[in-house]
Amino acid sequence: MSTKQLRLVGAHEIRIRLGGVSRQRAYQITSRADFPKPIADLVQGKVWLAEDVEAWMAVHRSNKNDSEQA
Question: Which domain of life is it from (predicted)?
Fold first, then answer.
């Protein structure tokens, strides 16, 4: 029996994947209506499925500077 391992990311990992944006900018992006919904809201913060975030980035962040895109 094989099980799929969930890859989760928090705000810090999202900041890194977005090129080191500020916490405020990461919050703005993750609050967008078109950004994936978090799968949990823990005491330490929200967490998202990494594959959902990566899919969103593939569409919205195609090699553009953060200030130009999203």
Answer: Bacteria
Dihedral angle sign, alpha carbons of residues 61, 65, 66, 68: negative
Contact 30, 11 (CB under 8 A): yes
- Please name the residues in contact with 32: beta carbons below 8 A apart, sequence gap of 6 or more: 70
* Cα 58 to Cα 62: distance, rounded to the nearest angstrom: 6
DSSP codes of every residue in 15-65: HHHTTS--HHHHHHHHTSTTSPPPSEEETTEEEEEHHHHHHHHHHH-TT--
* pTM of the predicted protein model: 0.81
Q: pLDDT, tens digit, for every residue of 50-63?
A: 999 999 999 998 65
- Delimit the domains of the chain by residue range: 8-60
